[in-house]
Design a protein that fits this description.
alpha+beta, Butyryl-Coa Dehydrogenase, subunit A, domain 1, Butyryl-CoA Dehydrogenase, subunit A, domain 2, Butyryl-CoA Dehydrogenase, subunit A, domain 3, 3 domains, 12 helices, flavoprotein, Acyl-CoA dehydrogenase family protein, FAD, AcylCoA_DH/oxidase_NM_dom_sf, Acyl-CoA_Oxase/DH_mid-dom_sf
Length: 376
């Protein structure tokens, strides 16, 4: 079947053998915690996907990355969610490097070469406000930097090698500046507390990470020259573009897995495929259009609005398609296997990620009326 063949080919280019490795497991085994999918992702070189080639990474484009995430989501929903946060962390570090002192390049190279998994403790950005204002506080003590706070949920909480966290750090000149802390998972003071209470997407390891007087060498904090009250909107926009596109692609992959099962069911070859195919494929094309634009256009408020539009269109497409697929698969499929119901339940998770559609109603209206975009 040609459905998903392009995405799986891109996945195999960047992470050879991962698709075949995931396909060998029952879905239920992949979606449990701990999941074998996370180690398979590491073994296939997945951590380096968005690390620039100059730093020994794969240097995937936005378009290639969203195709990879759709293919991953179609095999293992939990892995798509978990790796979105890894890739988002890497993309954030790449962007922060534009304001840093060069150390970040060495860290990116270590991630790619050593296949390190990076969890995200970044605050959720608001355009025009402080994207790096923290869940986690930082202060200088006796030549060390001491961190306190928590992040929940935090995907990859139990498999991470590093935790990236946005912090505000006061310099020796008394000015608060933005920084990105890179915290080895084995650092004393880091604990993981159960948080995720549903079996849906449990394999993403989205528990609470708590930092209690965690001491870091200052070399593990990527400083910027950006003051805390003057965060460039470029950081906000870049972060949200990557987050929305990668996340949406992964969830569309989950819905696509249900489409694939519907198209391949006994007697399905005689059906009109469009009720299952068109909405999801249309949403994918919208996501890919924004990903293509990231290569050629300014990363502006207008492009972020397009990314949000694609994401909300995907939510509608997922709701329509999963219902149509479950109806076509029928009651015996529902009784005989939990996989269809699981995929439908997992795919609806896109609705719960920020920024929620309902909270963006007024900001989008204001943007259309000529005012700056705000993230609600």
């Amino acid at each position: 079947m040609n459905f998903l063949h392009r995405e799986r080919a891109v996945l195999d280019t960047f992470m050879p053998g991962l698709d075949q490795a995931l396909a060998r497991y029952p879905l239920g085994e992949l979606e449990c915690s701990p999941s074998p999918a996370i180690q398979a992702f590491r073994d296939a070189g997945g951590p380096g996907l968005l690390v620039p080639a100059v730093n020994a990474g794969a240097g995937a484009s936005a378009l290639q990355a969203v195709r990879v995430q759709r293919a991953v989501g179609a095999r293992c929903p939990s892995l798509a969610v978990a790796t979105t946060m890894h890739h988002f962390s890497i993309a954030g570090l790449v962007e922060a490097a534009k304001y840093g002192d060069g150390l970040e390049g060495l860290l990116l190279e270590a991630v790619a070469k050593d296949r390190m998994l990076v969890a995200s403790g970044f605050a959720e950005g608001r355009a025009g406000q402080n994207i790096l204002s923290p869940h986690i506080t930082a202060e200088r003590r006796a030549g060390r930097i001491v961190l306190n706070g928590s992040k929940m949920p935090c995907s990859l909480s139990r498999s991470m090698d590093l935790l990236t966290a946005s912090v505000v750090l006061r310099g020796e000149d008394g000015v608060d500046r933005l920084a990105v802390a890179l915290i080895p998972a084995a650092t004393p003071g880091i604990t993981v507390k159960p948080f995720w209470g549903t079996p849906i997407l449990a394999g993403a390891e989205s528990d609470e990470v708590i930092l209690t007087d965690v001491e870091l060498d200052p070399a593990m904090v990527v400083a910027t020259e950006v003051t805390a009250d003057a965060v460039p909107d470029a950081l906000n926009i870049a972060g949200f573009l990557w987050f929305e596109l990668l996340l949406t692609a992964g969830y569309l992959g989950m819905a696509s897995a249900l489409v694939e099962r519907t198209l391949a069911r006994r007697g399905g070859a005689q059906d009109d495929p469009t009720p299952y195919l068109v909405a999801v494929e249309g949403a994918v094309l919208a996501v890919e259009a924004v990903a293509r634009a990231m290569a050629d256009e300014e990363w502006s408020d207008a492009l972020l609005v397009q990314a949000l539009t694609a994401r909300y269109a995907a939510q509608d497409a997922i709701a329509h398609t999963t219902g149509a697929c479950q109806a076509a698969l029928g009651g015996m499929a529902f009784i005989g296997s939990p996989e269809g119901s699981y995929l439908a339940s997992a795919a609806v998770g896109l609705t719960f990620h920020p920024p929620a559609r309902s909270r963006m109603a007024r900001p989008l209206r204001d943007f259309l009326d000529g005012r700056p975009l705000r993230i609600g």
